[in-house]
Amino acid sequence: MTAAVSVHHLTKRFSRVTALADVTFEIPAGSLFGLLGPNGAGKTTLFSVAAGFLRPTEGSVEVLGVDVAEISQLRGRFSMLPQDAAFQGGIPVLEQLVMFGRLNGYSKEEATRRSHDALALVGLDEVAKKSARTLSHGMMKRVVLCQAFLGEPEVILLDEPTSGLDPETARQVRDLIHGLRRDRTIVVSSHNLREIQEICDHAAILDEGRLEVVASMAELTSASFLLRIQLTRPLTEAAEQALLADPEVKRVERTSETELNLELSLASPDGKEGALERIQRILLVDHGLVLRSLHEGASLEARFLEITGGTYDGASAT
Q: Which of 20, 174, 209, 213 is the most buried (most CB within 10 A)?
């Protein structure tokens, strides 16, 4: 496996706070890689060190074999889109993209051509002469992506690229990122676990500044599963104990009198259907508890919650 990004024993301290603690892992070249963790886990700090915005306290980050302490050597080959990236409201979009192109070392003519190409990639070439303030939030997100994909970067970091978007626009941006991947390495930081599971082939999970796991998505999702169950009346103690006695029920979490989360640890992915049948039989047949609703959670959420001890809300863990 060739690594596009290598993180070596990375530690970053801010006064008495350790944001990253001896983090080591590699991001395979050509992968669409997810960086996950609760608030304060160290995701943005890691991105900031990798982009050269912050200096590490200890350790190093290499991108395409270059230590980011010498980040000028990566000009045009490496880009990062911060979560709060924004354009100036009153300046035409094209002018701002051309400026970013010039900062990457292109001539004005080349920067203009590449800016038009980037806008075409996101399907917004017609907004080139419009000012940023005239664009919808969703369109602006797509334009901002142009900045990250301007030219031919080989490694791209995207920090919360769908944050604040409605579900449909977020889906469009996810599809866009997936379509723009080609032979690039793209690293996406996100709170949306379903999003990461949908588009990424590898992921790492940080918690309190420490790396907890890094693996392919297939490895991360092969054995864990979540169910969110709503009953018509409260779960009894006897029913809870019966659920816990099932060999594939790892944890029962009561979220209200009539709602619960079940974390399953499956011996194989094929065991899910059998486990679902047993759970419904325990509740309905053995204990007379009628299910009002049953929602299946993404497998990545089960692994994430197992590591971080978070709470599953039926949508995405944060």
A: 20
